[in-house]
Amino acid sequence: MSDSDLVLSVRDLIVEAALAEGTVRLVDGVSFEVRAHEVFGVVGESGSGKSITMLAIMGLLPPNARIAGGQVVFMGRDLAKLNEKELQQVRGNKLGMIFQDPMTSLNPVLRVGKQIAEAIRIHHPRMPETGVRRRVIELLELVEVPNPEQRYRQFPHEFSGGMRQRAMIAMALANEPALLIADEPTTALDVTIQAQIMELLASVRARTGASMILVTHDLGLVAETTDRVAVMYGGRILEMACVHDLFEIPRHPYTVGLLNSLPELHSEDGALYSIPGQPPDIRDRPSGCVFHPRCGLQQGRALCAHTQPTLAAGRSVGRLVACHFAEETPQWAAVAMKMDTVLEKENA
Amino acid sequence: MSTKATFDPEAQSEKDRQLKPSRRWSFSLKFAALLIIGVAILVGVVPFMPSYDPYTQNLGAGTALPFETIDGHFYLLGSDVLGRDLLSRTALAGRISIIIGLSAVSISLIIGVTLGLAAGYFRGWTESVVMGIADLQLSIPRVLLLIAVTAVLGSSIVTLTVLLGFTSWVSYGRVARAMALSLREREFVLSAITQGARSVWIMRKHLLPNVLSQMIIVGSFELGQIIVLEASLSYLGLGIQPPLPSLGRMVSDGQNYIELNAWLILVPGIAIFMLVAGVQFLSQSFTTEGDIDLDIAKRG
Amino acid sequence: MPRFLRRRILQSLLTIFGVLTATFFLVRLSGDPASLLLSMDATNEDIARLRTELGLDQNLAIQYIKFLQNAAVGDFGRSLHQDQSALELVLERMPATLELALTAFALGLALAFMTCLLMQLSSNRWVKGLIMWLAFIRQAIPVFLFGLLMILVFSVTMRWLPSLGRGGITHLILPALTLATYEIALYLRLFNAALGQEQRQDYVRTAYAKGQSRIRVLLGHIVPNALLPIVTIAGINLGALLGGAIVTETVFSWPGVGRLIIQAVNQRDYPVVIAGVFVISCTFVLVNLIVDLLYTFLDPRVRLA
User: Fold this and answer.
1) Which of residues 23 through 52 in chain A touch B, CB cutoff 8 A?
2) Using N-to-C axis directions, what is the helix angle for A340-347 and A329-336, rounded to 10°?
3) How confident is the model at residue A333 (pLDDT cuts 50, 70, 90)?
4) Res B281: pLDDT
5) Left if phi > 0, otherwise alpha if psi is -120 to 50, otherwise beta: which for A49?
6) C265 close contact with B: CB closer than 8 A
7) Rounded-to-integer distance, Cα B248 and Cα B229, Å
8) Smallest Cα–Cα separation from A173: which of A150, A207, A145?
9) Which chain A residues are Cβ-neighbours of C210 within 8 angstroms?
10) Which positions in chain A touch B16 (Cβ < 8 Å)?
């Protein structure tokens, strides 16, 4: 895997925010890579820092937050070092983003066609009017909006939720981005529409060859769509692997807990599992391993509370885990979580 | 369903800011306290002083400046053109303004809450009629409405108070109606209905308490407005009539002598300001956000 | 004609009709208009004659209908003190009032806008606090008092500007400023709140995500949305503006409709009072209608309702 294969390389990213109580680290040393043509999933609960990480990459952090350290190398340039003007050239151009709530993400007083056209005009200011309009219609067709000519002149409130998200996707794809960041793109949509949108994203990616980062809390979505996955918690990445490995043989106790909390249709005792405890207050992060207060694998061992585990390579290639006792995970999972299948596969 | 990034530092810090009382709030309160104490002394202490005398004229001592002594009489704030003690007149006029203000607010509050709750609770014709009257009243600037009505009906203290009360109910009515509309669907109301409670009882026991806290906010703001209205009317000559002194009229009389002695305007003027500003700063301190509810403004 | 437009126009006509009716009954309420209009030593015959003249001896319903009929053609009777049609008299003064009101309105918005910009640009929190505090103080000073203070400072003490009458710009400055600054506190809070609220919306984030520049986002996205509550609230406030104009005219002896009405009230010239109230009401209703139309023009979500 050469570096030219990499679309995005994030190294030791740190994001800090100035809150009333002082400076808080929202993202604490996050590193990952996205390769060409792949779908990279970022999974985590609310407050894990996954969305902030994406906003940091785009340079769209709120005014009281900033990148305090690390690199964000996109197509050979470190975005963290660019000024606003330079970032504007990248955003919406080769780097696109779609957001969670399509209902509020479109400007209600401007026509949809105009908003999509804006995405084009910003980066191709000299394109003639007719060319822009043609391209917008093309994009609407690409995202499978029926009657694009008519829809062009309509306002967002005349679009359904699913269609608005399609319009958002059209906007993000307008300039053929190399990387599309999708932050919970289907969370606010009906289940049936969700499937359609994910399919659309898949087909669009196939056509344009773009890579995608999919941020979500929905493990099912991750299993279906992504190639590689990072699991975030408390502003850090705890585990990173290809999706198959992650689901079959999770190495981090947190991942185990997440997987175990998925309601299974055929489960025997019917009780839903949830990881005991609360997500961490990042204003007062636990010392050492950020997960240790809730970790069943810690078993009182002081190392977990003392020393922060680094995201290190595990047994197979491309697997990274941040846990001092990762080798013990499969046994522990089998016994404590009744996840025998994990142990079986481990030994297979 | 949250639409923002899962942890929105901006929203969080906004929330945190709201939890702490802002500095501006305590400053407003201090300033309001100062003004109100000043007014309290004016209307509460001055009338009991031995030199208090708002009516005796002394044509030889007209338009005296503050701190002047004429004919052995010390005028703390000067005298008007007829030689009457400005301090005393201002004190009495201030009292009258406050009484009218508080009474009018009470009247408009009662009318507004009653009509508003009825409109919001009963809907249908009641609502149409009430809102129709409100629209009608609002279709004419308040000052003009009062001018027209006082022109015809006169302006004794009682008449004025009643008129001010009757023409100022709409703000209360609107808020009361909005609350009634939202509360009438709530469980505690619905269960009261199923238990056979009568409408009036429901409105009194269930809706009213919820509405009152909002009314205080509206009322404190309206009090300032009413005092200004009364003063404006008096200035135009249509408010309190002589021999009773009124702050507005004192200003208007003083305007004739503006070149000679500006204090004739400034003394009642400052009194008006202290009264209005005190009330307004006080009402400002009730609302922590203190600002315009833009969602009401959006009709989308 | 779109349905909402028809409805609004009908509403406006209904309101004007209501104002006329209220005015009619108001005057009748005060007792016998005829005896009010004549001096104290009028004989009963004089009063009776006047009553017949004014048609007051007829059935109330007939009087009402006649009143409405007359009003429809603009006949509000003749002024009792000046030999002229009441309506004519009022309309003669309208330009003066409009000049004052519109200047003050535009000036108020412009001042508020510039101050708002100043506040946004200045990162100094102390400055922002001071400006808002000053605006608040201004709001606690009634229009007539502020006008007099202006006269005191600029006419009496400095002798820079005239204190009464209508003439060139120099005569317009003080009254217009008095009126304009009255609402500035409201407009400042309004602009700040509206712009601030829109800044935090999701569509702004989308616009930035497209790579749009700050200025374009402000002008092309934020302002069009911020205008909605601004137009609504500014519109609601026009009533206060007109009311303030009436008082300001008296302070500065500005020859407008407001001052005319006050004089007519003092002279008991009822036809002029009624005509004046009617005209101002109509103006107000018309302006509200325009504001509503403007709003539907700005907000496409309402247009199709």
Assistant:
1) 24, 26, 46-52
2) 150
3) confident
4) 81
5) left
6) yes
7) 10
8) A207
9) 91-92, 118-119, 122, 171
10) 19-21
The DSSP result for C58-73, as a single string, is S-HHHHHHHHHHHHHT
Cβ proximity of A51 and A84 under 8 Å: no
Sheet holding A39-43, edge to edge: A95-98, A179-183, A211-216, A39-43, A228-233, A236-242, A320-321, A312-313
Chains in touch with C (3+ beta-carbon pairs under 8 Å) read A, B
Cα–Cα distance between A135 and A142 in angstroms, integer? Answer: 10
Q: What is the dihedral of CA A312, A226, A194, A107, to 10 degrees?
A: 70
Q: Write the residue in C202, C220, C221 that is nearest to A99 by C-beta.
A: C202
Torsion angle, CA of A55/A59/A65/A67, rounded to 10 degrees? 100
The mean pLDDT value of chain A amounts to 88
pLDDT in the model for residue B14: 43
Contact check, Cβ <8 Å, A108/C225: yes
Cβ neighbours of residue A329 under 8 Å, at least 6 residues apart?
A250, A251, A252, A253, A256, A297, A323
Contact A104 C201 (CB under 8 A): yes
Distance from CA of C83 to the nearest CA of B (A): 22
The verdict on a CB contact (< 8 Å) between C284 and B142 is no
Q: Do A171 and C210 touch (CB under 8 A)?
A: yes
- 3-class secondary-structure state, position C109: helix
How does strand A39-43 pair with strand A228-233? parallel
Minimal-distance CA residue of chain C relative to A116 = C210
pLDDT digits (tens, 9 = 90+) for B289-298: 444 555 444 4
What are the tens digits of pLDDT across the range A174-227? 999 999 999 999 888 888 899 999 999 999 899 889 999 999 988 989 999 999
Mean pLDDT value across residues B221-245: 91
Q: Chain A residues with CB inside 8 Å of C299's CB?
A: 108-109
User: Looking at the predicted structure, is the pLDDT value of residue A139 above 60?
Assistant: yes
Look up residue A125 and give its two tokens. Answer: 């200011």
pLDDT digits 0-9 by tens, C28-57: 766 666 655 665 555 777 777 777 766 677
Among B82, B9, B122, CA closest to B250: B82
Report the amino acid identity of residue B10.
E
pTM (global) more than 0.90: no
- d(CA C257, CA C82) in angstroms, rounded, equals 15
Beta bridge pairs of residue A67:
A15
Q: What is the CATH number of domain C93-298?
A: 1.10.3720.10
Q: How far is A275 from chain B (nearest CA, A)?
A: 19
The CA dihedral of A172, A173, A177, A178, to the nearest 10 degrees, is 110
- Residues paired with residue A14 on neighbouring β-strands, in sequence order: A28, A69
Which chain B residue lies closest to A235 (C-alpha atoms)? B7
- For chain C, the structural domain boundaries read 2-71, 93-298
Residue C147 in tokens:
């006008």
Q: What is the mean pLDDT of residues B40-56?
A: 84
Burial bucket for residue B288 (CB in 10 Å: 0-12, 13-18, 19+): exposed
Q: Do B13 and A100 touch (CB under 8 A)?
A: no
Q: Backbone phi, then psi, for A277, in 5-degree steps?
A: 95, -175
Residue A239 in tokens = 């585990």
DSSP line for A17-44: EEETTEEEEEEEEEEEEEETT-EEEEE-
Residue A75: is its pLDDT beyond 50? yes
Name the DSSP class of C221. I
Q: Is C210's CB within 8 Å of A101's CB?
A: no
